[in-house]
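Why should sequence recovery work at all? Because a backbone constrains its sequence more than one might expect. Tight turns favour small or flexible residues, buried strands favour hydrophobic ones, and helices have their own preferences. The token representation captures these environments compactly. In the example below, the structure is given first.
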């Protein structure tokens, strides 16, 4: 099958690689063209614009960083949506807010195309191993059409409901993840102030019932001060912002969300945005970017 893939960052490049390894023919586009080089060397076709992707495919995946980036490649000057053959399918795996997702679903419908929101739960290593979890919103028939492909990139496909509900589930998930990371960093700060070693705190807290399971994966980063990005901190901050926008739209008060968002904003301001989200600990250590 010929598949279009737009967005080849930390996640998208690995997801596309699984499709290619399974024998699918890829047409790829990334704003920074060098990120497509490895896939092109293995047989993918490089497109110079998103529109060029759509001219060659009836199925397009997007994996982009922000709603603005998604909007630009879909309905911008060289957007792909207008160039797709009628009744094609666009699967957006980007983490965006539900109201934006519904707007994109309407654009697709008006142009005679089908759409799924299918953001993923998981970061660099699950993407590398093909162990992502897809949280999908849209028509059941469209989900079934791409299930085999999603299974190549992930270990589970959860059809949450209608358009926007996949994006909503991902937003709730990432809100909890970012808050848990900040909460654990705060606990480490208080524990060490009491004279307890970071090693003892990690050993005890991470084996207890209060810690989120993913925090164990962050232990080496925290103890070794090695914050190479698995899930960049700036995207965690972006997701908290979008959750805040959604809470405003739904007239829901989320005071803990807004506190966490400001902590991540401090981390970005200190220069840690491109590091892993676990670098939020550096805010509590009062470190500055070297």
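From this structural description, the recovered sequence reads:
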């Amino acid at each position: 099958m010929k598949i279009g893939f737009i967005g080849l960052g930390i996640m998208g490049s690995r997801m596309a690689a699984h499709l290619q390894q399974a024998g699918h023919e890829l047409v790829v586009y990334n704003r920074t063209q060098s990120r497509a080089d490895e896939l092109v060397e293995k047989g993918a076709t490089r497109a110079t614009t998103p529109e060029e992707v759509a001219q060659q495919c009836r199925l397009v995946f997007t994996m982009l960083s922000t709603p603005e980036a998604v909007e630009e490649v879909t309905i911008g000057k060289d957007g792909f949506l207008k160039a797709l053959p009628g009744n094609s399918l666009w699967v957006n795996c980007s983490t965006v807010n539900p109201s934006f997702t519904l707007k994109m679903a309407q654009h697709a419908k008006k142009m005679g195309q089908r759409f799924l929101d299918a953001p993923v739960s998981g970061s660099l290593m699950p993407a590398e191993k093909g162990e992502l979890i897809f949280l999908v919103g849209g028509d059941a028939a469209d989900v079934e059409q791409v299930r085999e492909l999603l299974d190549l990139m992930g270990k589970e496909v959860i059809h949450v409901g209608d358009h926007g509900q996949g994006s909503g589930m991902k937003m709730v998930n990432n809100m909890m993840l970012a808050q848990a990371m900040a909460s654990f960093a705060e606990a480490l700060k208080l524990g060490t102030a009491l004279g307890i070693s970071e090693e003892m705190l990690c050993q005890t807290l991470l084996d207890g019932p209060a810690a989120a399971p993913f925090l164990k994966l962050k232990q080496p980063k925290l103890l070794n001060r090695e914050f190479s990005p698995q899930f960049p901190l700036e995207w965690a901050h972006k997701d908290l912002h979008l959750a805040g926008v959604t809470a405003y739209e739904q007239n829901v008060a989320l005071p803990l969300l807004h506190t966490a968002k400001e902590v991540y904003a401090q981390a970005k301001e200190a220069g840690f945005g491109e590091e892993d989200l676990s670098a939020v600990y550096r805010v509590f250590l009062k470190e500055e970017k070297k």
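A few observations help interpret the result. The chain has a mean pLDDT of 96.
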